[in-house]
Structure prediction request, 452 residues.
Amino acid sequence: MTDNKFLFEEAPVSRAVATMAIPTIISMLVVVIYNMADTFFIGQTNDAMQVAAVSLATPVFMVFMALGNLFGIGGSSAISRALGEKRFDRARTLASFCCYGSLGLGIIMAAGFLLGMDGILKMIGASENTYGYAKEYLTYISFGGPFIMFGTAFGNILRGEGAARESMIGNLIGTVVNIVLDPIMILAFGWGVMGAAVATVIGNVAASLFYLLYFLRKKSSLSIRIQDFRMGEGVAASVMAIGIPASLNNILMSCANIVLNNVLAQYGDTPVAAMGVAMKANMLVVLLQIGLCAGIQPLIGYNYGARNSKRLKKVFWFTGLCAVVMGTSLTVLMVIAREAVIRAFINDAQVIQYGIQMVIALQIAGPVLGILFLCINTIQGMGKALPSLVLTICRQGLVFIPMVFLLNRLFGLDGVVYAQAVADFISILMAAAICLIIIRRLERQDREGVQV
Prediction:
């Protein structure tokens, strides 16, 4: 932690943001490649039903990642604030709680998914053509659930103490393993969706082993010792206060995707496959902006805990400028390359036709979408649970899901395709308003000499 003190407290804001955000952006780029790899290699089978099945099953896979973020984002926020307050013992206790909490809940969720598989498949809208493929994919993903949750959690926990580079390396290891295994298991072995699932699980096991080794080699100021595990003294509460809204965001994304796929399925399996490909392509625009904004959350949390509101605001405004520049550049790139990107995944004329329209629709809010993620991560870094919860349930819950049904009724398939863009703009406006109110409150407290 002493190595990161200068970074958190004294380094130029541009350097601090770059040091924390670039590894996180690279990690997210790796996630983009990782997600695209599965769809790309499954697409090489030229079986649109397998592509559709993975698209249907992805929201369920995201539940494991969401619950990993319950401990990862919640723990990272609590740890960075504890370090800013110089409460190092509490930071170690928080890390240990997140370790065993993520593993324990992962085992419970894996068992629940395996026992309730048939009901889950009906819920996500699997058709007669996709049922078998989706079941095969989710069965293997469920066995890997504890590793998915632990790896997701500790990628964030390491960033909480400023170890963004190590977090990136763990993510890289998991993704490289997955990408190397994908063509072998999907195509060479002829395992199809089962191969994609097995490669994903092995990749997550590799990342988890790296994080475990990092702690065992005592390179961290945090702890995963069972002796440091506690739930009382506000430990669990401080993690859950931010972790629940953060994980709820991912869970609502999964629910929203399930709703979207069910509505799209009314128009056939081809639009489901096309939207799955379009959303994979759109990850480049979305996840890199998430990476930028998630990377600075420990800076926000540390300076909030250290009562340094002036530096906190500098980090916020500088990151906002970077987010708009990045979002605009990525959106232009995706619009120009839209057809080539879709064709890279699958050579099916109908899927390509739908996919091009869907990619364009998803890019409409791209230039300013980073503002939403910046506001959410700033609020989470400050530990403000209620505003974080409000923004979480709005974008993918209270706004997006009703928009899917409303626009479907009004405009049919075209309305469904543009529902995400409408929801994004509404959520951006709400997030900016809430975050500006909090920032102005900090400014007023500065003028009045009140500590944050």
